[in-house]
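To whoever is on call:

I kicked off a structure prediction for a single chain this morning and the downstream step that reads the tokens threw a length-mismatch warning. I double-checked the sequence; it's 392 residues and nothing unusual in it as far as I can see. Pasting both halves so you can look.
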Amino acid sequence: MAEIALEALEKIYPDGTKAVERLDLEIRDGEFMVFVGPSGCGKTSVLRMVAGLEEITGGAVRIGGRVVNDLLPKQRDIAMVFQNYALYPHMDVYDNMAFGLRRRGVAKEEIDRRVREAMVTLGLHEALHKRPRTLSGGQRQRVAMGRAIVREPQAFLMDEPLSNLDAKLRVEMRAEILRIQRDLGVTTIYVTHDQTEAMTMGDRVAVMRHGVLQQVDRPQRIYDRPANLFVAEFIGSPAMNLIEAEISRDADGLIASFGEHRLRLGHGASAQPGRAIIGIRPEDFEDADLLPSTRAGSTLDVVPEIREDMGAEVYLHFGLEVPPVRRAEVAEAQTADVEPPQQRPTARNRSPFVARVGRTTSATEQEPLTLAIDIDRIYVFDAETGEGRHAA
């Protein structure tokens, strides 16, 4: 096993496209690191440079303390798991897993030991002599994992390995990949555009945008303390509600004003008086009628336009009579490949909001409703830079 260090890593393509810009990151031995971001953000370019499939424009990649910039992929002691499985259709499961070892001249007895141990880990006993075309998508992905496992590499590199599976199987395979990685303790880099995969799988998550690392931290930390508007919008489904507000101060603390609305900010926000963007996650709303009491300055009177019953909870879509936040990074995050449901569009001078409330709510479409807000979880971002302002 080994740690992987990326030092001022850069990738510039011949047409001048800068895919990765001075990326510095250390991935610890045995860590499961997830790179996430919209299409074109540079995450796959990073993976391919680590693998040796893309030439490095600048900086260095170290695996186990050794600079590997000039080494061929087969010399780097890593194993890749691809999106399309890349199995040999004319070979059975055993031969698919053994093929790479045979090419490396590994002894027959050692090959058999590694393949059969991987079979046990992956639960592929009954598929040992089946061809790929007879296997389910999940089984094919397990075979692809097995081919990587038998290599006994220093690191696994996984490029959106679950994107071809249906939703139910993706959930199952997420847990399976995590179990295997934990059992083996192999350093792993996992690339995905799906923020749900990133949040549920990574020991740490690296959020990318336009080739620049936006934030890297534990998943919950990124969710609770997003570094900027892009991270705030990209991580979380439905997306964070954003609105431009004027921050003022009175004897009791900070107040955010937007349109006819006033909200008191809790202790989780750090802001100076003036213009700012505030964010409220959908789950930080609740139907005030479902609560025994509400705090002063913590409610909004709204009229739900759409009610979506999701079983365990209810999504309420509504608009506020203030112009929506229009920033490039917000638009980019909203159009990224993230899982639905997303906020529904509203009129030009209205801000779209979605609240995720308890399933026992009596809220109905087009009827006035009072929503309570957890004001200690209101986010504040600089209106000019988009950087997050968090209390110490």
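Update from on-call: the warning came from a stale cache, not from the record. Cleared it. Sanity check on the structure: The longest strand covers residues 18-27.
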